Amino acid sequence: MREVGGVLELHESHKTLLSRTGMHTREHLYIGGEWVTPRGEGSIEVVNPANEQLIGSVPVGSAADIDVAVASARAAFPSWSETTVEERAEYLNRLSAAIKEQAEELSQLITSEVGTPINYCRMAMVGTPAVVSRSYAKILEGFEWEEEVRNSLVVKEPVGVVAMITPWNFPLHQIVGKVAPAIAAGCTMVVKPSKEAPLNAFALADIIHDIGLPAGVFNLVSGHGREIGEVLSSHPSVDMVSFTGSTGAGVRVSELAAPGVKRVTLELGGKSANIILDDADIGKAAGSAIYSCFNNSGQECSALTRLLVPESKHDEVIDVISSKMARYTVGNPLDESMRCGPMVSKRQQESVAAHIASGIAEGAALVVGGEGMPDGLDSGYYVKPTVFAEVTPDMAIFREEIFGPVLSITAYSTEEEAIALANDSDYGLSGGVWSGDERRGMRVARQMRTGQVSINGGPFNISAPFGGYKLSGNGRELGVHGLDEYLEIKSIQR
User: Three-state SS for 471?
Assistant: First the structure.
């Protein structure tokens, strides 16, 4: 740990406050390598969605704080962009090691903020960011920064100062998924975390400070999206905006960035289809369909929320899902036996509940779940994990992103109809295909208008690009393609 104008003492005092009170109270912003007093007023309270108890707070940043943070990133860019590949790889490896070292503490914190079941949190929320950071160090080892094209030397250079606006559902993963390639590219950055789950971003800032990343490369300003998020998106000294969140908010970010012709990458909503073909292993496919929809309590933009099944296998699929859902536990996310936790907020709980009510009102057949709180729970932002059958394309639960544990099942008669139903969406983020014939599965996957498709439950690959078609966004994250988003291309003729 290093000392910069009293920063060490502040950092340690925060840890003392945390250990003494059990509260994650953050009173400063991280700008220019220092924990500084915010220029904004007030704080954002963070509530544990499992028990509705206050667990901490972060400062409300202002436009003035954004100005200072962007200026810090701009000042740091010239020297940072000229660092060697080896230097940047070393910082990425340090970051990975530090996240791994503090994995349990981070997992407990994120579960308390978001309500993610602890086992899934350890793997996806914390384990994955550690791997992603290390992967970019590895990518740098063989990355081609220059190529000869006839009489031109084509070179790749860092885009500059990057504004990063991140969501609450995978908070640390989404931050590191932007920070790591930006570090690899030689960019500097200003991060605005979600107000629903900001505490892990501050823990990450502690880590970044401790690994010695040069001052100004990483800056953190918390606050309200409609205030500092909009200022950040339109700031004249920002070269690129990387946003993950709702489609509506992404459109607004694009509008604000457009006058400055900034580069914008958007990872937005989804309403992804999971196709079970008639030659699939029905037991395996139907069982997997539960988890591909309900991971993180259904609060995943890439969740496979529309299950398309052949008419001849419809009843068999329903039977499998019904039997497995009977053992699908809901409750305290810190309890390792629980599969599903709460929604992140009261507002999200109400939104999901409204969609469940809509499905019932529109005539979908309720298989399991439904309205009200799960049995045995009288507090927390919980909903019943719910499965609907006989869902038709005119229903809201077929078309709208619910962002909760709600699975919609629709029957089809032909493979062509299944593909048409899968593509009958404004979104195109993810998808799945199940078939006993991998070649058939690949043929169907190629026809799905979406950024990612898994065949027979193929696992997520952090080295492959992730992003969407249509209203699911543009640009890609992760792997080499994610690094390319943070680079400009220059041709030098000679």
Answer: coil
Over residues 353-362, the pLDDT tens digits come to 999 999 999 9
Q: Which domain holds residue 257?
A: 7-268+473-493
Q: Are residues 15 and 95 in the same domain?
A: yes
Measure the N-to-C terminal CA separation of the chain; round to a whole number of Å: 47
- Does 281 lie in the same domain as 195? no
Of 49, 119, 105, the residue nearest 336 (C-alpha): 119
CB 198 within 8 A of CB 222: yes
323 and 174 within one domain: no
CB burial of residue 25 (10 Å; 0-12, 13-18, 19+): middle
Clarify whether residues 316 and 454 are in a common domain.
yes
* CA dist., res. 168 & res. 93, Å (int): 25
Rounded distance, CA 387 to CA 290, Å? 9
Contact 272, 305 (CB under 8 A): yes
Residue 1, in any domain of the structure: no
Same domain, 255 and 307: no
Answer yes or no: do 243 and 325 share one domain. no
Number of H helices, E strands in the chain: 17, 23
Q: In this structure, are residues 483 and 139 in contact, taking their beta carbons and an 8 Å threshold?
A: yes
Name 137's Cβ contacts closer than 8 Å, sequence gap at least 6. Answer: 89, 90, 92, 93, 96, 184
- Average pLDDT, consecutive stretches of 10 residues, N- to C-terminus, the chain (494 residues): 38 42 88 97 97 97 98 98 98 98 98 97 98 98 97 98 97 98 98 97 98 98 94 98 96 97 97 98 97 96 97 97 93 96 98 98 98 95 98 98 98 98 98 98 98 97 97 97 98 97
- Whether 172 and 282 map to the same domain: the answer is no
CA distances from 309 to 166, 276, 366, 430 (A): 35, 5, 16, 17
> Where residue 224 sits, what CATH number does that domain have?
3.40.605.10
Question: Active-site positions?
Answer: 267, 301
